[in-house]
Each structure stands twice: as C-alpha cells, then as structure tokens.
Amino acid sequence: QVQLVESGGGLVQAGGSLRLSCAASGFTVSTYVMGWFRQAPGKQREFVASINRGGGTIDYVDSVKGRFAISRNNALNTVYLQMNSLKPEDTAVYSCAAGPAMGVGYTRYNYWGQGTQVTVSS
User: Fold this and answer.
1) Strand partners for 81
2) % pLDDT > 90, the chain
C-alpha cells in the first residue's frame, strides 16, 4: 500500500526555519518524481518544489527560490523540504506527492500525503 506521511510542520516566527519530512512506504522514492505543494486557506494548491528520479533536476516556484531546498534520502526512502527565511506568506498546509514526471501541475502526481501545517508568525 502506497503511503506518504509528512512531518515537521509547526509554528515559527518570520525569519525562522523548518524542515519537513515525507516518509514513503509501498514504493521507492528514487523511482518517482517527488514534489511538495502547499495550500493556504482560501487559495488554490500551489507547486513549491520537485526533484526528479536521479536528483539532478530540481524545480522551485519563484517565491521560494534561494530559501527552500528539496532533497531526498534514498536509504531512508524519505524526501525533505528545508525551509529557511520563512515569511508569513509561507503559511499553508504542505503536502508531498509522487508522480511519473516533472511538472508544476498537481494532476501530474499520483500519490499524496495528508499534509502538515506550517504557520509563520510576523
């Protein structure tokens, strides 16, 4: 059974950092494109970052470039999102996802976690 479980969310002050983890089971993360999305209240789900199977191609939404970093530990079958210099506008539920190809559209991803709340206070 495919499962993605996120953790690491919480409340942080602006300028702070958090590291989100996404533990996968039922499949191997190195065989899928892995992505992070976020959804703030009243807003559409937004692509944040993705990493391809080999790890050599990484994409970010412009608003997080230079602040966020996606990575993968194949031995632990886990994907991470390191978030630095957090801003109040980063507040959202963050979800990881797995899919067959790179892309920013959420329909490209087949498997989803339940999400973890990130709240950045000003």
Assistant:
1) 20, 70
2) 93
